[in-house]
Design a protein that fits this description.
Helix content: 10-25%
Radius of gyration: 16 Å
Distance between the termini: 31 Å
Order of helices and strands: EEEEHEHHHEEHE
CATH topology of one domain: Alpha-Beta Plaits
Shape: globular
Number of helices: 5
Largest sheet: 8 strands, antiparallel
CATH architecture of one domain: 2-Layer Sandwich
Mean pLDDT: 91
Oligomer: single chain
Low-confidence stretches: none
Structural class: alpha+beta
Strand order of the largest sheet: 4-1-3-2-8-5-7-6
Length: 179
């Protein structure tokens, strides 16, 4: 496994991704911007940092299954993307990890639901809570335009799960590649 690395999502007036819309799903939103880059831009309207590190709620069998079907990021046909920052409640974080895992997968079926949409939708999770960021997780998704309806269906299923009762802040940023 590669070592952890930090990614900074910077929103502003330039970048390889055009922001189509920023929608507040729960809690406080984010300021408007027209473009997004995965670099720290000095003139950014806002920045969100996260660390790509080891999986935290996945079993070895789930990781093996995901590795067999999950597509990589940066595919030429994946002209659409979404960045979804989420912050969960203190109630969530006060639970033991096995209690969170039970909600995450045993009852909400987060991984099982997501598997139905692979490899059409690629994703990478960034942990931000330990960095003192305003969100706990930043999830980056990429998909081809013809898979946008499938991505929307995935979001509907996940947001209807028990796990989402613990989400107190969520913003959905939809993007298209500019080049």
């Amino acid at each position: 496994m590669p070592p952890p690395f930090t990614v900074t999502f910077s929103a502003g007036t330039s970048g390889p991704w055009h922001i189509e819309r920023i929608s507040t799903v729960a809690g406080k939103g984010l300021p408007a911007a027209t473009h997004l880059a995965m670099t720290d831009m000095p003139d950014a309207t806002w920045r969100l940092r996260g660390v790509v590190s080891h999986p935290r709620y996945s079993t070895a069998a789930e990781l093996k299954e995901l590795a067999g079907v999950q597509a990589g990021l940066g595919r030429s046909e994946a002209m659409c993307a979404a960045l979804i920052p989420i912050r969960k409640s203190q109630t969530w974080w006060s639970m033991a990890q096995d209690e969170r895992r039970a909600i995450f997968e045993d009852r909400s079926r987060h991984i099982a639901l997501s598997m139905k949409y692979l490899p059409a939708v690629a994703r990478r999770l960034h942990h931000a809570r330990d960095l003192g960021e305003p969100f706990d997780f930043l999830t980056w998704f990429e998909f081809a335009p013809e898979h946008e309806a499938a991505f929307d269906a995935l979001l509907v299923e996940l947001r209807a799960s028990e796990e989402w009762k613990y989400v107190e802040r969520e913003v959905e940023i939809r993007l298209t590649r500019t080049g």
